Amino acid sequence: MFKTFRRENAVEKIFDIFIYLTAIFVLIITLYPFLNILAVSLNDSVDAARGGIGILPRKFSLANYQEIFKYKSIPHAFIISILRTIIGTVTGIVASCMVAYTLSRKDFMARKIFGVLFVLTMYISGGLIPDYMLVRKLHMVNNFAVYILPGLINTWNVIVIRSFMDNLPYSLQESAKIDGASDFVVFMKIVMPLCLPVIATISLFIAVGQWNSWMDTFLYASSKDSLSTLQYELVKVMSNTTASAGQAEALKNQTSASANTVSPESIRMAITIVATVPILVVYPFLQKYFVSGMTLGAVKQ
Questions:
Q1: Most Cβ neighbours (<10 Å): which of 47, 50, 241, 280?
Q2: Which InterPro entries match (predicted)?
Q3: Are 232 and 213 contacting, i.e. CB atoms less than 8 angstroms apart?
């Protein structure tokens, strides 16, 4: 019996080692692309054109970032992106939670009908032209509201939040109702505090979507510079740099006096870092809620 115990213990140790090695391997292949992009963005463009850069810059230079931030529209666009991310996330969470709470109520007789109608919107869409016509009819073209209202409620977010609410003890709501609490009080004082994990998870999804979005700026607000977002400005910077890609061939013949010249590839890497870092800074604060929110529905009552 002692030998059997030792054999099982050895198997467990081997399995643990295998798990650790697998986790390390996954960590390396996950981090390497990001570190490589960071290294290229911090490397001199002329030197980067030779290739062979790993996770550390071979010839350190901030010229790529200087090229990006020399555009005067970048700081204002950064503020617009922050505003749309914050406002869009807060309003999106409030609206989605209210709809999810309504659909989760057992005394709402039409919740199945409305649930089916919401799901149908995930498969059936009017298309880009009807969307533009609707936005135009609502006078949201060249209006900040176009960043908020069209995507205020996302069906997938509503379904996820509703699934979480369905797992909450309904007796809590019934007890509050007996004590005289209104539906609004139940929603704000009981349901919402218990939904912090799923709220944090969906907030991260909405925030990432708002931060990375640039197509709505291109379609609905491109003619108004004051509404331009950071992502849209970075797309324009990348397009302008790529348009002059013919100069890249001349990099080999340039002298050291023109070392500040940047290449399209280096600009792409720097833009990727600028667009990614803000989300990476926010994520650690939501990580514990994000992990618990992703496991919703794993345990049924």
A1: 241
A2: MetI-like, MetI-like_sf
A3: no
